[in-house]
Amino acid sequence: MNAIVFKTVNAEFKFDQKEVKDFVARKKAEYDRDELAKLLRVISDKRYESFLNSDDHHYFGHVALDLINEDIGTVTCQICGKSYHADQLKEFAVGYGKSPFDINPEEKGGFSLFGKRRMPSLFGGKRYNCPAGHTLVSMETWKT
Questions:
Q1: What is d(CA 75, CA 31) in angstroms, rounded to the nearest whole number?
Q2: What is the pLDDT of residue 112?
Q3: What would the pLDDT profile of 104-126 be if each residue is shown by its tens digit?
Q4: By mean pLDDT, which of 42-46, 111-115, 128-132 is the weakest?
Q5: pLDDT tens, residue by residue, 69-83
Q6: Angle at 143 between CA 140 and CA 144, to 5 degrees
């Protein structure tokens, strides 16, 4: 199996290369075209494993979140040393949640400056923890 290994500070995710390519082909309208083209060049090598570091390949983090959400892949938690399938991970909201459309306008707050109401800058995203509670990946996916 040709694999894509995505490393974060606390985890090592492993995805089947063909499964990632098929997934990205189905969802390509949801991703930035230029970033996706760069990513496909990296993962299209004939190597047995492609290693991507979250610092160098930040954009793959967005794809990895979507793959995990679809129960694709496995992960090894570097803290507890155990391996898990994606469907065993626990999802949590970061900031104001997965989407700016999930925000309750009554809870947003805001402030008044020179008589005009201004909304604060908001952000949201999601994170996944292993069953033991260790944070494996956390990403901001939107910002206002």
A1: 23
A2: 44
A3: 544 445 444 455 555 567 767 88
A4: 111-115
A5: 999 999 999 999 999
A6: 165
* Residue 143 burial (CB count, 10 A): 12
Spatial distance between the Cα atoms of 137 and 31, rounded to a whole number of angstroms: 19
Determine the Cα–Cα distance for residues 127 and 95; give it in Å rounded to an integer.
10
Angstrom distance (rounded) from CA 36 to CA 30: 10
Return the structure tokens found at 125.
């995203």
Instruction: Please state, in angstroms and rounded to a whole number, the distance separating the CA atoms of residues 83 and 115.
Output: 55
Angle at 58 between CA 134 and CA 132, to 5 degrees: 10
Do residues 137 and 128 make contact, with C-beta atoms less than 8 angstroms apart? yes
Name the pairing type of β-strands 49-53 and 3-7: parallel
What interhelical angle do 58-69 and 17-27 show, nearest 10? 90
Q: Using CA atoms, how far apart are residues 134 and 129, in angstroms rounded to an integer?
A: 5
And the tokens for 122? 């908001």
Close Cβ partners of 49 (under 8 Å, ≥ 6 residues apart): 2, 3, 4, 5
